[in-house]
Amino acid sequence: MKIYNYKTPVSVLVIIHTPDMQVLLLERADHPGYWQSVTGSQNQEETLVQTAMREVAEETGLDAGRYQLTDWNIQNEYEIYDEWRWRYAPEVTRNTEHVFGLLVPEPVPVLVAAREHLRYIWLPWQEAAGKVFSPSNAEAIRKLATIRSNEHDGNGSEAP
User: Fold this and answer.
1) Which of 15, 13, 9 is nearest to 128 (CA)?
2) What whole-number distance in Å separates Cα of residue 134 and Cα of residue 54?
3) If you count DSSP H runs as helices and E runs as strands, how many of each does the chain have, helices first?
4) 48-66: string of b/e by CB count within 10 Å (b at 16+)?
5) For burial by CB atoms within 10 Å, which of 9, 21, 88, 101 has the most?
6) Cα–Cα distance, 11 to 25 (Å, whole number)
């Protein structure tokens, strides 16, 4: 009897961006035309920060420890898309996503994980928000403008 390790319905979404708000997007290998930010499920015994750092490394080859990783303290709960529901235990239908920002100094080259993504692009935040397939991903990218604006106004406690 094969025992399947289901994914935990807790994930991270990492908006990788530059100071001038260019955003990194990755095209899904299992669904060409679906663009997204770095995302992935939390492993057992892993903190959310560890999940974010691991997913950034796995999906882009970047070491998040070399850049400014910030927990935006945003949680989204959403219904898991039918096409990916098989990855979760049968009774699981919803996921809780935790949003992080990763500030890099400029659009850096990345090494996409071939089994997960086809290619990457850097886009201005407005274009990136319009290109991603996930509503929570689009909303998080739009939040980037607010967060950066608060930082410049001196109203934000932390830079994204």
Assistant:
1) 15
2) 21
3) 3, 7
4) eeebbbbbbbebbebebee
5) 101
6) 17
Q: Distance of CA 137 to CAs 73, 118, 152, Å?
A: 15, 19, 23
pLDDT tens sequence across 4-62: 688 999 999 999 999 999 999 999 999 999 999 999 999 989 999 999 999 999 999 99
What domains can you pick out in the chain, each with its CATH number?
10-153 (3.90.79.10)
pTM assigned to the model:
0.89
- Give the whole-angstrom CA distance, residue 94 versus residue 153: 37
Structure tokens of 29? 């290998």
Q: Which residues on adjacent β-strands are paired with residue 101?
A: 15, 70
Whether the CB-CB separation of 159 and 151 falls below 8 Å is answered with yes
**Rg, the chain, Cα only:** 15
